[in-house]
Design goal:
By secondary structure, the chain is α+β, with helices and mostly antiparallel strands. The chain has seven helices and eight strands. The chain has two domains: 127 residues, no CATH class; 132 residues, Cathepsin D, subunit A, domain 1, CATH 2.40.70. A hairpin with a 3-residue loop joins strand 5 and strand 6.
């Protein structure tokens, strides 16, 4: 069941991990659960609730590479909701589906019911998230000859970095990048390693562009000499955005401390 929970968590929090990492982490977490159950002298409340939650959060943190207390807090809330939801769906299936009745002890029946429960909860997550306002921004990219405007999603799960300098990398669709270049050939090619669920050791083409302006409601942030990765696939299934921003580009503290980029914050005047 850990595998289903961590996969749901990765989807919700937009974190990426290889399939092997998710499976391996789930197995290690399950082993710790077993050891915890048989640990003597632990009060019942801790054994049943606090201990399992701590193990789940620690395992999720390793699998999905959380880097802030806020992400851990969100993960705790999501895990609690999904565990109850998945357990509720499985209980319903074992009590109503004819071929599952009375077979709660069979491992294959548990896995099958878990998969059905996972699909149901995953569908529910998709439905509840349809109308949720996305963290979208209007972004202007300036090249050496052209400039384009597009919609971008600020994704806290984007941890891409240029491997030599450690600079944050945002991802833009290839079609948009070609419009930015025009007839000019791109310069300063960089290889950006990445991984996603089901794929490890991927390489994305990356380039430095002269300037990016991220437009907020009250102010805009201008960055110079920004590295972008070029995606050959659409970054949004429904086409709502064409770029994925690295969260560091919107983090005030990091923005002030980065020395290899040149940020500038400017107030938007009404009508501009």
């Amino acid at each position: 069941m850990n595998l289903y929970l961590y996969t749901l968590l990765a989807k919700t929090m937009k974190r990426t991990a290889t399939r092997l990492r998710v499976i391996g982490g789930s197995a290690v977490g399950a082993a710790f659960f077993v050891l915890w159950i048989f640990l003597p002298g632990v009060p019942a409340a801790i054994k049943r609730f606090l201990g399992p939650m701590a193990i789940s959060l620690a395992t999720a943190g390793v699998i999905l590479r959380f880097n802030s207390i806020g992400q851990i807090g969100k993960a705790a809330g999501y895990l609690s909701v999904y565990a109850f939801a998945l357990g509720g769906v499985m209980k319903f299936l074992f009590s109503t589906v004819p071929f599952l009745k009375g077979r709660q002890g069979g491992i294959w029946y548990i896995l099958g019911a878990g998969m059905l429960g996972y699909q149901a909860v995953s569908w529910w997550i998709g439905q509840t998230g349809k109308n949720r306002p996305a963290d979208l921004y209007k972004v202007k990219l300036r090249g050496r000859l052209n400039e384009i405007e597009l919609d971008a999603l600020m994704d806290t799960g984007n941890s891409l970095r240029e491997p030599i300098s450690g600079r944050p990398v945002s991802v833009v669709e290839e079609e948009c990048f070609q419009k930015l270049l025009g007839a000019k050939e791109p310069e300063k090619l960089r290889a950006i390693p990445y991984h996603s669920v089901g794929k490890s050791n991927g390489i994305m083409e990356g380039y430095e562009i002269p300037e990016i302006i991220i437009k907020g409601r009250e102010e805009s942030i201008r960055w110079q000499k920004v590295v972008v990765g070029v995606s050959r696939n659409r970054v949004s299934a429904n086409g709502r955005y064409q770029m994925i921003l690295h969260p560091d580009l919107l983090n005030e503290a990091i923005r002030k401390n980065l020395r290899h980029m040149e940020p500038e914050t400017m107030r938007l005047q009404e009508g501009k």
